[in-house]
Specification:
4 domains; globular; alpha+beta; 39% helix; two-stranded antiparallel ribbon
Length: 498
């Protein structure tokens, strides 16, 4: 019997060699360019969990060589830096050519399972696609992206990852002067819906097919055996997108800018900007201060996800070959969303079986949340602790609602539903606690970390990362991080500025 192969050695920067699969596409797909160095960069934060994806020795992350590399001041062996071109619909309006305006892809590296991870620097300087921007990112937005990328991964939601943030005392102008930063992002691919739209709307059929064949070959190889691989590709991306947004809804996450250029072809959450996690529940809540019409409100996210898939379907239509086949692929969205949403709700409410009255039970609870503007995360977490019979434990949940009589009636119906399947109390509670997080990245928590970091105190970022990496655990020493937000948090606004 053969012995198992020993684990691969942990990599250092000297042994981390890059390739660049994206660079094998024709030159029209990108511009080759070097990152613009930042003066005197320093480490703000790093994620050991993300470093492990590259098999990178976490001890190396505090070295100046690491800082210089992931600021863009030096290149890894094999690096082929480039900025990709794409287009897209922004707030439902065709915006034309966009592209990596402040991001540069260094290349990709394989992990021990031969999964390749693209390494991208965000905030690394001007590119041909920067338009009116300066190609830089500020410390504030970089911290928000870093923390949320890793928090979403810990919640089990498909996402790009964040390896580290490096900072510099160089200032750039936003609403006020702010210091610059670079966040290193990881993903199997950063190809977007808008990558396909770019070639479709420029009437470049050859490039459209080259891109689709590239995506099929490297990310969906099994689909190449289908009768119509391009239809199968659209159906698979549509399914992944629907399931992703169901997962967003289940934790109260709002992306804020669901433009087609921010939609991953792999069904990942990418491009964290003015996102937010629902606090006082309001299905109409808009987390992006610049979204005046509420296009990307919490309630609208599933609809916009479907709209974006239709935009991708339009771009793929010349390859799919017929409107009917394109519509058939897009028809997978609603059932996929509903299946995933229903499964997630059953887990959140601790139900093992499916019964006819379940949807009404769920809807009534959300109506109670809406009426009281009860805290989304806390209400589900407290519900998870409830016993099968009324007890003093109910009070923590009841305190979150204005109409306690209505909640009590709902709880009576809920417990009857639990009794109908002979629910085991301890098993149900454990399942609910592993489905309803105690800790999410509330805006005010991020703001506290940002304000400390702006004074060169990065300890709060590290603490938040540690907490958010275990969102379902009680972590009693950090219980204050699960409390209702303070009054001043209601004045916080986030927008597309970064």
């Amino acid at each position: 019997m053969n012995s198992p192969a020993p684990p691969a050695a942990t990599k250092t920067l000297h042994t981390l060699t890059l390739g660049n699969r994206f660079a094998t596409l024709p030159a029209a797909f990108y511009t080759v360019l070097q990152p613009t160095p930042l003066p005197a960069p320093y480490l703000v934060a790093r994620s050991p969990a993300a470093a492990a994806l590259l098999d990178l020795d976490v001890a190396a992350t505090s070295e100046q060589e690491f800082i210089d590399t992931f600021t863009g001041n030096r290149l890894l062996p094999g690096s082929q830096p480039l900025a990709a071109v794409y287009s897209g619909h922004q707030f439902g309006v065709w915006a034309g050519q966009l592209g990596d305006g402040r991001a540069i892809l260094l290349g990709d590296a394989a992990d021990r399972q031969q999964q390749r991870w693209e390494i991208q620097l965000k905030g690394s300087g001007l590119t041909p696609y920067s338009r009116m921007g300066d190609g830089r990112a500020v410390l504030r937005s970089s911290i928000r992206e870093f923390l949320c990328s890793e928090a979403m991964a810990a919640l089990g939601i498909p996402t790009s990852r964040a390896l580290c943030i490096t900072g510099s005392d160089q200032h750039i102008m936003r609403e006020t002067p702010e210091t610059t930063a670079v966040v290193t992002r990881l993903a199997p691919s950063f190809i977007r819906f808008g990558s396909f739209e770019h070639w479709y709307y420029n009437d470049r059929a050859e490039q459209l097919q080259i891109l689709a064949d590239f995506v099929l070959a490297h990310y969906f190889p099994d689909l190449r055996q289908q009768a119509n691989p391009y239809q199968a590709l659209l159906a698979e991306v549509t399914r992944r997108t629907a399931e992703l947004i169901a997962q967003w809804q289940a934790v109260g996450f709002m992306h804020g800018v669901m433009n087609t250029d921010n939609m991953s072809i792999l069904g990942l959450t990418i491009d964290y900007g003015p996102y937010g996690f629902m606090e006082a529940y309001d299905e109409q809540h808009i987390c992006n201060h610049t979204d005046r019409q509420g296009r990307y409100s919490y309630r609208m996210q599933p609809t916009i996800g479907h709209w974006n898939c239709h935009a991708l379907g339009q771009a793929l239509l010349p390859l799919i070959g017929s409107v009917a086949e394109t519509q058939a692929a897009l028809a997978t969205y609603e059932p996929a969303f509903q299946r995933k949403w229903d499964a997630l709700l059953h887990r959140k409410f601790g139900l093992q079986s499916t019964q006819e009255q379940d949807q009404d039970l769920f809807q009534r609870y959300f109506a109670l949340l809406q009426e009281s503007h009860a805290d989304f995360t806390l209400s589900f977490r407290q519900l998870s602790h409830l016993g099968n019979q009324p007890s003093a434990q109910d009070e923590a949940l009841r305190d979150l609602f204005i109409d306690r009589t209505a909640l009590d009636l709902w709880l009576e119906n809920y417990r009857q539903r639990l009794a109908s399947e002979n629910s085991d109390e301890q098993q149900r509670q454990q399942g609910m606690l592993s489905s309803n997080p105690k800790y999410v990245l509330r805006n005010y928590l991020a703001q506290i970390a940002i304000e400390k970091a702006q004074n060169k105190d990065f300890s709060e970022i590290e603490k938040l990362l540690r907490i958010l990496e275990r969102p379902y655990d009680e972590q009693p020493e950090y219980a204050a991080y699960a409390n209702l937000p303070p009054d001043w948090a209601g004045q916080l606004e986030v927008s597309c500025s970064s």
